[in-house]
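thought: user wants a sequence for this fold. calling inverse folding tool.
action: design(structure=
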């Protein structure tokens, strides 16, 4: 059994862990594809001192034997220790990996490295610049396998047809179907960025500088931004995409819509052109709340869908209405409220105050990723609640989802 001194020496397990980390970070694969002089890689070992050799020689011998027994993927350089005190000893001092293949084999990834190099070579045959995508995304390339080659064919087609002007469903590339594109949008976007970048500026010295579009929801109410990842993909590459739709309910039974229909869904462009004889609009984020709002004279209910009310931005008729917003009582709910006010400053929040939050403590939930944004369009009371949710003064990441508010409580206050 090893003594206490051995705890500080680089064991075989620690050495393997260092190599595994290099693999997981893609360093081994990148060096195999585009050598930068890292190999031969020398990993310095923490080893016994002369004093430790004297005090715990058996543990030191066991430590060294383990490293020597596993040599093969690596070689060991030794150092002379204790010549003038306890006598000359030659413990391992450096583990040397001659090539990326050696280090990959050491962590059991030799087959994966070979597969990576084959795939990277196939990508380069399609277009040399895609080799750089492979260097940036070595692990995804292995995970994708041959799907990466299909994604590359789509990316090459998109580079050659920057504004196709039809729906993705109509794209005719052999072996490529709509579901494939939906599943691999991110990869296709990255490859297009590399292809276009290399076409515009020649070989890319630093692939990290290539702009890769994200599918995060930008939440830009005031911009003509597509809402969903699919819509943003279509917009980026010049495809047509089904128009954004808006769902609304007429709460005034006297105002006619379309025959007996009270609940309609229309294209955003049609919604913007409406001339409804209403004086109040209630926007709610919850479908059940939207469906169960009671009748109310001169009022329309609008089903919101989180950030990005682009359809409401140009609805000029809303500017002449009292607009009520009922969202979740959490930091993102206030973020949506703030965003909505950027184009409809008259918006009033309802059931988004401390008087609603505190009595519903028993149904509080946890907000997964609270917003840290600075919001400049909240009232003083709203800002106080928002800052309290941010700071944790009510509790850790508190949120109150609107559907958990007692319905009697909600309708009483909405009717005021």
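)
observation: tool returned 416 residues.
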């Amino acid at each position: 059994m090893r003594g206490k001194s051995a705890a500080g020496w680089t064991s075989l397990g620690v050495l393997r862990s260092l190599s595994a980390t290099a693999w997981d970070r893609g360093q081994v694969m990148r060096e195999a594809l585009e050598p930068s002089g890292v190999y031969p890689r020398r990993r310095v070992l923490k080893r016994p001192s002369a004093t430790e050799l004297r005090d715990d020689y058996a543990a030191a011998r066991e430590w060294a034997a383990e490293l020597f027994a596993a040599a093969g993927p690596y070689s060991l350089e030794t150092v002379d220790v204790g010549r003038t005190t306890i006598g000359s000893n030659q413990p391992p001092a450096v583990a040397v990996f001659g090539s990326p293949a050696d280090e990959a084999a050491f962590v059991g990834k030799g087959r994966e490295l070979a597969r990576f190099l084959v795939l990277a070579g196939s990508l380069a045959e399609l277009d040399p610049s895609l080799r750089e995508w492979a260097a940036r995304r070595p692990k995804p390339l292995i995970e994708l396998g041959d799907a990466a080659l299909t994604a590359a064919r789509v990316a090459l087609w998109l580079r050659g047809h920057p504004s196709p002007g039809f729906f993705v469903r109509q794209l005719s590339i052999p072996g490529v179907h709509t579901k494939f594109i939906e599943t691999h949008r991110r990869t296709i976007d990255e490859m297009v960025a590399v292809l276009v970048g290399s076409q515009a500026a020649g070989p890319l010295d630093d692939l990290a500088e290539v702009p890769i579009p994200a599918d995060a929801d930008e939440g830009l109410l005031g911009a003509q931004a597509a809402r969903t990842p699919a819509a943003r993909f279509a917009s980026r590459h010049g495809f047509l995409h089904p128009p954004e739709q808006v769902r609304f309910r007429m709460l005034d039974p006297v105002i006619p819509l379309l025959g007996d229909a009270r609940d309609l869904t229309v294209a955003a462009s049609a919604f913007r052109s409406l001339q409804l004889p209403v004086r109040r609009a209630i926007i709610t984020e919850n479908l059940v709340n939207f469906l169960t709002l009671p009748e109310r004279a001169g009022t329309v209910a609008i089903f919101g869908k989180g950030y990005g009310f682009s359809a409401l931005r140009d609805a000029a008729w809303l500017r002449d209405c009292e607009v009520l917003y009922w969202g979740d009582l959490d930091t993102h709910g206030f973020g949506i409220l703030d965003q909505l006010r950027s184009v409809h400053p008259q918006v009033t929040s309802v059931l988004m105050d401390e008087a609603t939050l505190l009595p519903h403590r028993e149904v509080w939930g946890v907000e997964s990723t609270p917003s840290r944004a600075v919001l400049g369009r909240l009232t003083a009371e709203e800002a106080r609640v928002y800052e309290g949710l941010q700071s944790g003064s009510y509790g850790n990441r508190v949120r109150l989802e609107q559907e958990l508010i007692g319905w009697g409580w909600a309708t009483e206050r909405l009717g005021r």
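thought: summarizing for user.
answer: Here is the designed sequence. The first strand starts at residue 41 and ends at 44.
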